[in-house]
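Office hours follow-up: a student asked to see two folded examples consecutively, so here they are.
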Amino acid sequence: MNPLTHVAIIMDGNGRWGLKYKNSRNAGHKAGLKTVEKIIRETLKNKIRFLTLFAFSTENWKRPKKEIHYLFNLLENFLINRIDELHKKNIKLKILGSKRFSPKLNKLLSYSEKKTFGNNKLQINLALNYGSKLELIEAFKKINRNKNKISEQNLERYLQTKDIPDPDILIRTGNTKRLSNFLLWQIAYSEIFFEKKLWPAFTEKDFKKIIIEYKKIKRNFGKI
């Protein structure tokens, strides 16, 4: 049975779910946050140490400004209202990506990271303003700046995930089969599950089903 340490998720389909059921993309984002809370609880139950959630990509700035504003307000309210609860549950929050948001959100993100820094039951990596291509470019720049030899080991030292094991599982909801510039280096040997359900419709039962299926897979890593 395969050990399971790290699950990464591309939470796709909030907007489409909102339009279909509530005639509002923002309603889908709000519903999607409830799914996040359910999956966090299920992650804790299964004693998974790392959960990485793709919340906002470097490409998502192309979306309407009103939608972006709503998304960041949701995040602000979540941090204000739930960071103490996460801390009590021994959950660590780490931000992947560039903190180029409003002063208020940047302050909340930094505060949340500092407050939960010493926690070790579960680490939630929240990918915000994150793009894997940019991450790799920045890593190569740091290798060059420090006059290090280009190697896998040195590259990984300069990635934002340098102290995080690579994902065992990548889940993408929303019935879309692409990686969307997410953890391109780190998921080289991840088991990938494309889920038809839109993110707000994704349940704990769906999550458990994927975990069970993953544990049955024979992982060779290039061997026979």
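And the second, which I mentioned at the end of office hours:
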Amino acid sequence: MAGKKSSKQANSIKVGIIGFGTVGSGTVEVLQKNRDIIRDRVGWEITVKKIADLDISSDRGISIDPDLLTTEAMEVIADPEIQIVVELIGGIDKAKEYILRAMEKGKHVVTANKALLAEHGKEIYEAAEKNEVSLAFEASVGGGIPVVRSLREGLSANRIHSIMGILNGTSNYILTRMTQKGLPYTKAVEEAIEHGYAEDPPTLDVDGTDAAHKLAILISIVFGVPVTFKDIYREGIDRLTPEDIQFAGELGYCLKLLAIARDLGDAVDARVHPAMVPLNHIMANVNGVYNAIYMEGDFVGPNLYYGLGAGRKPTGSAVVSDLIYLARQIRQGIKQVIPPLAHVHPRRDKVLVQPVQELMTPYYFRFSALDRPGVLSKISGILGENGISISSVIQKGRDLNGSVPLVMLTHEAKESNVINALSQMNGLEILTDKTMMIRVEAS
């Protein structure tokens, strides 16, 4: 079990790393370059004893003893001297197997695996408690931003009323380039890939899945029980156009991919989608590959966390912060400080997510309409029949193909009514393309 150490291990915490890619190499780099300051803060050395990866020949840009490298992950887990196992391979099946096996061996675990925790967190959290080991996952949300520990510890005296986050740097970079340079979506994606900010293709980033994984983890910490990931509504940015960004600006807004959670009492409003944000809102100024998480607690009020949300160095920094946290605990002979979700007695057994159809918010519509008399009255009539009132309208001049963009901003409306109204308009011959609908986040 990972507890007090023998004299042979007395002044060193032994760590094993599974996964030596971008984050794994960044973790080793932090441990090497900041060795002295880490030792001073822990009181003992943190030593990497073994590193497992399928590729042990590629140059990672750091000096590493070849004897530390292995292609067998189980060598890390089976080593009796290793007290902390760091899982950095990503994915689901193998990562879950390695984490569970490590916990069964009595080893503490550090992971950056947001997908695993969001989709299979319950099993992982229960295994940590059953085996009386600690699970640390600061790097799973926000890269180098210390938001997980802030929720688990710094804000633990508060009821968290709301979370609003820009949690995916790739999508934020794409939208920033579309906004600042007027690039079409495909060109902005190509640029993100060229600069190494996105995978090719960047599906999980741009379709909202990555941000939803992170939001699920944050909500789970807030309530102390895992949220069901599939219940979180998610929508991507791939349909957004420079024209939508331009119209948003004319209306006093910008476009961001937001992850939103609000405590409604008996349920949680949890969703990820593009949203129009007022230009004077703090989130409007979060650009490029940066992330930001804005939270409100009942006593602490608003809190903002901002920084690089991904990358070798920021994420490696977060992993090492977890190692320091666990090393201090091991040095004191403590098996487990707090449960993974930081609740000994959660307030509820299950987190119920409000269906997105129940959402009440203002909306932005962009219609592609034929340039004919009565078009505006026909559209506004259908909206009115569904209880949707118009706040403002922008109508541009004649387009080359005979269609004109008609832009509307509504007052607060119910999503189910919006869906019904747009479905009624689908068959109208006055509309030449699918209507663009974007939710407005006014608070």
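Two things to take away from it. The domain at 148-308 is CATH 3.30.360.10 (Dihydrodipicolinate Reductase; domain 2). The longest strand covers residues 253-263.
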